[in-house]
Amino acid sequence: MIKKFVSFYNSWTGTIVLVLFFIFFIAQSFVIPTGSMKPTMLVGDALFGKKFSYGTPIPRIPWLEFPLLPDFNGNGHLIEGDKPQRGDIVIFRYPQGEKIHYVKRCVATGGDKIMFRNKDLYLRVKEGDEYINKNYHKDDIVSLQDVLWVKNPYKREHKGIHTDDNVYRESSANFGPIIVEDGEYFMIGDNRDHSNDSRYWGSVAYRYIVGQPWFIFFSWEHRDYYDVLNSDDSQDIDTLRNVCENISINDSRCRDKWKKYQHSPRWDRMFKNFSELEKKI
User: Is 36 annotated as catalytic?
Assistant: First the structure.
């Protein structure tokens, strides 16, 4: 029996079955295309995502993203599991286009109240004042209209969360308050001023939840010099300055230096999980 099993998985058919099982139920590779989670995640980070963190999503054909099975439970999962918690980094399907995967941080869950004021995030968890006093740092707790809120509740633990002093968008700087729908999750990028997130298209239902980032297996800088030079993200400009050292970023010599730097692997990020990387920020 064991010999037949080994023989099957040594065949092409067995290999394909094993690979598909891995992709459908264990882990799937993703590449970070935008800077919405910088510096926690960088453009060009290639990572494996755990697909079993929040239950078992309905398997889909890779690249085509066509579901192989009906949604028997009506929640996008074959087996329902744990739900995203406040502060988790979550991989999910974009609610307005299910074939697109997003990676953001869950900042509020169903029943929580949330708002932004002058770029500061304020969270009033559904458990109320007593829970807030017991579970959040006293310096982060503020009283507004006789109820307690937590101001920037994740910045103390997750150092990658930041705003860009060179950018101000009214739609993201001042938002809400709103109450998150039951069974849904409010997702925000760590790079707060450069993130297309729940402030624009709403909270994410459980049926769109795919899993959690696991670890980076490869990371490289692939962007063109002019893409970085013309970016409105100050971190991109800082990266360009670091590469070019004492040369003006508009100088042709800087462009030549970037061309040498471009396509270079980021060895220090490979095979690291995001808890490790956050500690270095």
Answer: yes
